[in-house]
Amino acid sequence: MATLKHIAKLIGRHRNDSLNERERRELQAWCDLCDENRMLFERLSNQCLVSNILLELYSTGINEEGAKIRLMFPHKKQRPFLRALQLVAIIMGLLLTGIAVYSLLHRNRDKKITSVDNPSKDGLGDSLAPDIHRVELKLANGRIVYLDSNINGHIALQYRSVIYKRGDEVRYEWSTGDAQPELEYNTITTPRARKFAVELPDGSKAWLNAASSITFPTAFIGKKRIVQITGEVYFEVSHLAMELGAGVERKPFVVNVTSLPGTKGAGAAIEVMGTHFNVNAYGDEPVIKTTLLEGKVKVANRLQPGLTKQTAILSPGQQAQVNGDGHLEVEMYTDLQDVMAWRKDLLIFNDLDIKLIMLQLARQYDCEIVFKEPVTGHYTLSVMRQTAIGQILEALEFAGGVHFKVEGRTIIVTP
Asked: What Pfam families is this protein classified in (predicted)?
């Protein structure tokens, strides 16, 4: 006799249209055993019903017990049979913790939608607990300061800036004392699985995602404020003006992004006055993305000699994309929650290729990814950063089309 958990998985695979013939016969036999089984199967196969209950669960706070009963008897308040409630409990538990996937909300049958909401220390994630890596501040003289230590307070003096650390943030404050002889540059680098924040000498703030860096002068004394980044950084840029002859002129803030490895492009430059925006420029991803949340920015591609330069002015909600050939495109990006999820310790992937999902998981969980065979498919995934990676992998497997094997800190991916 098949276990309830096994039947739950068969129903999940049926919802994804990924049952093989043997599994289809097995599920049909279970449905034919009694009317209760068939009714439950029909309820759990009703995408609209399940989705509405999940939405109500998240938006109004009905408890899981109520959600289970709603699945069994959507128009009645009576309690279901114990066996039925047990199976619904398994299904709802899977839906609510991400081990099951609700699919076919869109016509694209390759899209799988997964919800992972409850962090867990169980399963495969234990074997992939992050190694100890350090957030580094590289001073102008080459000295390395580890910023993830418990030590707070004064760190160093660079040019006219005094560097202070407090928790997961460093702050550069302008000093009225004697300046060091020449302008200096500092670099902050985050490893995999770590984030950090810095308040720059002009009061602008930058938040670094995992595996990212920012290089900046210890004082903005020229006509422009210029920084260089890799990886992903969110900026809140302060307005800054300078005296120029008889008047005052605003001092632009420029973010330079290096080219993607092995491409024709030379990166991108983002110029702003005072605004909030996010730049995603990981070297192992195919596109440099600049998303504007507030204010206005100008994005320009930086090309090798002989190629055409393009520029675009972004309004809030727009995203500029520079691909490997240096081509710049702008599109309306209405779901800014996806872009800013990492700031809230969330991972949200919206109809994303499995290869790009695995790249991001590798950065966030500090692991290596090996594709043994070509794997295709797009998934929509919402997960808390604290969730064990084993739970995420199980959710993706349940969606169908992909399997994982964990060996040490390496995840092997197969169809």
From this structure: FecR, FecR_C
